[in-house]
Design goal:
Radius of gyration: 14 Å
CATH architecture: Alpha-Beta Complex
Number of helices: 2
CATH class: Alpha Beta
Helix content: 10-25%
Shape: globular
Protein backbone atom coordinates (compact mmCIF):
# COMPACT_ATOMS: atom_id res chain seq x y z
CA UNK A 1 0.00 0.00 0.00
CA UNK A 2 1.45 3.36 -1.03
CA UNK A 3 0.42 6.62 0.55
CA UNK A 4 1.77 10.15 0.20
CA UNK A 5 0.84 11.00 3.80
CA UNK A 6 3.64 10.09 6.20
CA UNK A 7 2.61 8.33 9.42
CA UNK A 8 3.02 10.29 12.64
CA UNK A 9 4.92 7.44 14.33
CA UNK A 10 7.98 5.32 13.48
CA UNK A 11 7.50 2.46 11.03
CA UNK A 12 9.18 -0.94 11.41
CA UNK A 13 10.83 -2.23 8.23
CA UNK A 14 13.10 -5.08 7.16
CA UNK A 15 15.77 -5.50 4.50
CA UNK A 16 17.96 -8.33 3.23
CA UNK A 17 21.62 -8.50 2.23
CA UNK A 18 21.17 -11.37 -0.23
CA UNK A 19 24.38 -13.10 -1.30
CA UNK A 20 24.77 -15.41 -4.31
CA UNK A 21 28.10 -16.72 -5.58
CA UNK A 22 29.99 -14.10 -3.57
CA UNK A 23 27.91 -11.20 -4.90
CA UNK A 24 25.21 -9.12 -3.23
CA UNK A 25 21.92 -8.05 -4.77
CA UNK A 26 21.31 -4.32 -4.90
CA UNK A 27 18.03 -2.87 -6.16
CA UNK A 28 17.22 0.69 -7.25
CA UNK A 29 14.14 2.31 -5.78
CA UNK A 30 11.69 3.61 -8.39
CA UNK A 31 9.79 5.83 -5.96
CA UNK A 32 10.13 7.58 -2.61
CA UNK A 33 11.55 7.05 -0.12
CA UNK A 34 15.05 6.77 -1.61
CA UNK A 35 13.93 7.09 -5.25
CA UNK A 36 16.91 6.58 -7.59
CA UNK A 37 19.14 5.06 -4.91
CA UNK A 38 20.45 1.51 -4.81
CA UNK A 39 19.68 -0.34 -1.62
CA UNK A 40 18.62 -3.73 -0.30
CA UNK A 41 15.25 -5.33 -1.01
CA UNK A 42 12.78 -4.92 1.82
CA UNK A 43 9.90 -2.93 3.18
CA UNK A 44 7.45 -2.38 6.00
CA UNK A 45 6.41 -5.02 8.48
CA UNK A 46 2.65 -5.49 8.61
CA UNK A 47 0.77 -5.70 11.91
CA UNK A 48 0.94 -9.24 13.34
CA UNK A 49 3.72 -10.32 10.95
CA UNK A 50 7.05 -11.67 12.21
CA UNK A 51 10.23 -10.01 10.95
CA UNK A 52 11.23 -13.15 9.02
CA UNK A 53 7.77 -13.51 7.44
CA UNK A 54 7.81 -9.83 6.47
CA UNK A 55 11.26 -10.19 4.92
CA UNK A 56 10.34 -13.31 2.94
CA UNK A 57 7.17 -11.55 1.69
CA UNK A 58 8.91 -8.29 0.77
CA UNK A 59 11.77 -10.03 -1.07
CA UNK A 60 9.27 -12.20 -2.95
CA UNK A 61 7.04 -9.20 -3.84
CA UNK A 62 9.93 -6.98 -4.94
CA UNK A 63 12.19 -9.51 -6.68
CA UNK A 64 10.50 -12.92 -6.93
CA UNK A 65 13.50 -14.50 -5.19
CA UNK A 66 13.42 -17.15 -2.51
CA UNK A 67 16.00 -16.69 0.25
CA UNK A 68 17.40 -18.38 3.33
CA UNK A 69 17.50 -15.88 6.19
CA UNK A 70 20.60 -16.48 8.32
CA UNK A 71 20.59 -13.87 11.08
CA UNK A 72 20.22 -10.21 11.93
CA UNK A 73 23.10 -8.20 10.44
CA UNK A 74 22.24 -4.86 12.01
CA UNK A 75 19.72 -2.09 12.09
CA UNK A 76 19.42 1.48 10.92
CA UNK A 77 17.17 4.33 11.92
CA UNK A 78 15.97 6.86 9.35
CA UNK A 79 14.47 10.01 10.84
CA UNK A 80 12.64 12.80 9.01
CA UNK A 81 14.92 15.56 7.76
CA UNK A 82 14.16 19.18 7.03
CA UNK A 83 12.47 18.12 3.78
CA UNK A 84 10.15 15.74 5.59
CA UNK A 85 10.06 12.01 4.99
CA UNK A 86 9.22 9.10 7.21
CA UNK A 87 10.68 7.73 10.40
CA UNK A 88 11.78 4.11 9.93
CA UNK A 89 13.55 1.50 12.03
CA UNK A 90 15.03 -0.95 9.52
CA UNK A 91 16.08 -4.40 10.75
CA UNK A 92 18.56 -5.73 8.20
CA UNK A 93 19.22 -9.45 7.82
CA UNK A 94 21.99 -11.48 6.20
CA UNK A 95 20.55 -13.97 3.71
CA UNK A 96 21.55 -16.43 1.02
CA UNK A 97 19.86 -16.72 -2.36
CA UNK A 98 17.90 -19.99 -2.63
CA UNK A 99 16.16 -19.84 -6.00
CA UNK A 100 14.74 -17.68 -8.74
CA UNK A 101 15.99 -14.84 -10.88
CA UNK A 102 15.12 -11.21 -10.12
CA UNK A 103 11.78 -10.07 -11.53
CA UNK A 104 11.22 -6.56 -10.22
CA UNK A 105 7.88 -5.09 -9.21
CA UNK A 106 6.92 -1.45 -9.82
CA UNK A 107 8.70 -0.30 -6.63
CA UNK A 108 12.09 -1.00 -8.28
CA UNK A 109 13.56 -0.13 -11.67
CA UNK A 110 16.98 -1.86 -11.73
CA UNK A 111 19.06 -4.49 -9.99
CA UNK A 112 22.71 -5.50 -9.89
CA UNK A 113 24.61 -8.48 -8.48
CA UNK A 114 27.88 -6.90 -7.34
CA UNK A 115 30.98 -7.88 -5.43
CA UNK A 116 30.43 -6.37 -1.95
CA UNK A 117 33.49 -4.14 -2.29
CA UNK A 118 32.64 -2.96 -5.82
CA UNK A 119 29.89 -0.41 -5.15
CA UNK A 120 31.97 2.22 -6.94
CA UNK A 121 30.15 5.48 -7.53
CA UNK A 122 26.62 4.08 -7.34
CA UNK A 123 24.05 6.29 -5.62
CA UNK A 124 23.39 4.21 -2.50
CA UNK A 125 21.35 4.71 0.64
CA UNK A 126 23.24 5.97 3.71
CA UNK A 127 24.84 3.26 5.83
CA UNK A 128 24.61 0.58 3.12
CA UNK A 129 28.34 -0.36 3.08
CA UNK A 130 28.30 -0.90 6.87
CA UNK A 131 25.25 -3.18 6.71
CA UNK A 132 26.81 -5.16 3.84
CA UNK A 133 30.04 -5.65 5.81
CA UNK A 134 28.08 -6.74 8.88
CA UNK A 135 26.11 -9.24 6.76
CA UNK A 136 29.36 -10.62 5.36
CA UNK A 137 30.62 -11.19 8.92
CA UNK A 138 27.37 -12.98 9.84
CA UNK A 139 27.74 -15.22 6.78
CA UNK A 140 31.47 -15.74 7.27
CA UNK A 141 32.40 -14.40 3.83
Amino acid sequence: MTTSIQPSHPQLAVSASIFRDGKILLVRRARSPAKGFYSLPGGRVEFGETLHAALQREVDEETGLKIEIVDLAGWREVVPGTGGGGHYLIMSFAARWSSGEPVLNDELDDFKWLAPDALGDLAITPGLPDIIQSARRVLGI
